[in-house]
Amino acid sequence: MCGRFTLTADQEKIADAFAGYVFKAEHRRRYNVAPTQEVAVILNDGAGEITRARWGLIPRWATDPSIGNRMINARSETLAEKPAFRNLVRRQRCLVLADGFYEWRTIPGDRTKIPHLFRLRSRRPFAFAGLWDRWQPPDGGALTSCTIVTTAANDVVKPMHDRMPALLKPADYPLWLTPGAIDADATWLAILCPYPAEEMDACPVSSRVNSPKHDDPACCDPVTVQSELRLDD
Hints:
- The chain has about 230 residues and is mainly β.
- The protein has one domain (about 5-105, about 115-200): SOS response associated peptidase-like (hypothetical protein yedk fold, Alpha-Beta Complex).
- About 10% of the residues lie in helices and about 35% in strands.
- The longest helix is centred in the last third of the chain and has 8 residues, at about 225-230.
- Mean pLDDT is about 90; it is low at about 225-233.
């Protein structure tokens, strides 16, 4: 799954990684992105913009926006089958911009969980495969929201979780962002595979990230497991 992630790169690095897309809104570095917060996205609407959406999908047919709290992830293997996702994977796909994500490791014989930060070895920004929709409340403006697609964990993530977000390779960005309807067949879904483990690394970080109230560089500070256990005592 994916429950927290980062986008710590500055605007220049993001523009380099996603050349050809322009910022619609001012960029702010994020060190601990949590569900229901705004995230940077590129929609397949042909606008060519890096814009924002709420993380937690609120389908256009929803009567209560709180449904988004339960729809932060979508399993790649069942996208074409689930009623909430099957039309979106055909028509409304997006990139969710990031440069790291968190997962927690349980200490054997202990209830303590140590957060780990997963990144590309290159430290370049990347994109999760996502789906988006636009919900119109009875009173007020339309709300764009998204969900992050997940896939089986690679060998770097597997010691901590059996799922990971579906990181797309840059060569697949144009395919995922194809405007309009596509057939969600094996060719499309094949790009939603575990990212090559040899291109990623992970390190334990501060338990500060456990609280979504914290969104600062200290969330990404590397720690030793022993010091973190003492901090939690």
